[in-house]
Amino acid sequence: MTRSLTIGAAQLGPIARGEGREAVVERLLALLRQAAARDCKLVVFPELALTTFFPRYFMEDQAEVDTWFEAEMPNNSTQVLFDEARRLGIGFYLGYAELCVENGQTRHFNTAILVDEAGNLVGKYRKVHLPGHAENEPERPFQHLEKRYFEPGNLGFPVFQAFDGIVGMCICNDRRWPETYRVMGMQGVELIMLGYNTPRYFAPAPDLNRMADFHNHLVLQAGAYQNGSWVVAVAKAGEEEGCDLIGESCIVAPTGEIVTQCQTLGDELIVASCDLDLCTMLHTKRWDFAGNREPEHYGLITGSKGVVSPFDQS
Ligand code: ING
């Protein structure tokens, strides 16, 4: 029996600074219902999907900063999304700003959760690679204050048994770093979900702006192919409060091929039937780590057996 999973990538267009969470959740519900009509079992929403990309703004009052965070999930604004998803039998990935208390300390993370088709929380991921800066840089056309408002994720890159496969998550800038994919790849991941808010104009390196779309797909396709995993990457897109965010949300096969991508910069659902057994073929035929490389040959590991592949047949 082929393990085929129909997945929806639910891209969002801009979210205005003053747009309330209830209005945004109505947009998420519309995409969820479109996904149900196209037999999706899983829907991926963007990073920070409930509000505008607030790290664009310099704030000094922590009470004001905390208004952009969710102290509970689900909560009054999002319970309706969880209820409708369960009614429709669809799981989902949702990115949001997480405010929590751990060991008596208030913490702030850029977070994503995965909920299964029965409405159970499968797992949580907290963004490890926080781009941007922490101090006010008013000369920038748009600020990117993730280092000010979030702490680096403290959950690592776990994978979870769900949707009849091995699945994992990351968020936005994480997708640019090869170790993000590899850490999950060495755990046998078959599906990596992620959301992103990516400005087209990157102040520290403007020469790269012309390659924003190319670099987005480059890292997704490489990560998918080199680890034999599906990758579903979903944008918040369009001109949001004057800031151009790239779109081109896409679903990438373990072969590295983009099987479908968004054509607009607005709310748009794309769908693909993802054969998880394709991952098994690649993991055994193409990426047999144990059979294709001896750690001592490349000198990274001495003494131990080295990185033991989860696909090790021995
Ligand atoms: N956004 C951007 C991203 O990694 C960025 C930050 C933009 C980094 C352009 C490099 C170049 O896609 C988030 N939210 O991480």
**Which geometry do the CA atoms define?**
globular
**Associated small molecules:** D-[(amino)carbonyl]phenylalanine
Question: SSE order, as H and E?
Answer: EHEHHEEEHEEHEHEEEEEEHH
Could you please say which CATH topology applies here? Answer: Nitrilase/N-carbamoyl-D-aminoacid amidohydrolase
Compact description:
The protein has 314 residues and is an alpha/beta fold. It has helices spanning 21-37, 62-66, 79-88, 146-149, 178-185, 212-227, 277-286, 289-292; strands at residues 4-11, 42-44, 91-102, 105-115, 121-126, 159-162, 165-171, 191-196, 230-235, 238-240, 243-245, 250-252, 258-261, 268-275. It has one domain: Carbon-nitrogen hydrolase (Nitrilase/N-carbamoyl-D-aminoacid amidohydrolase).
Task: Explain this structure.
It is a single chain. The chain has 314 residues and is α/β, with parallel strands linked by helices. It has one domain (4-308): 4-Layer Sandwich (Nitrilase/N-carbamoyl-D-aminoacid amidohydrolase). The chain is 24% helix and 27% strand. The chain contains eight helices and 14 strands. The strands form three sheets. The protein has a six-stranded mixed β-sheet. A six-stranded mixed β-sheet has the order 6-7-8-9-12-13, with helices on one face. A two-stranded antiparallel sheet has the order 10-11. Helix 1 (21-37) runs parallel beside helix 3. The chain is globular and about 55 Å long. 42% of the residues are buried. The protein binds D-[(amino)carbonyl]phenylalanine. Residues 131, 172-173, 176, 196-199, 202 line the site of D-[(amino)carbonyl]phenylalanine.
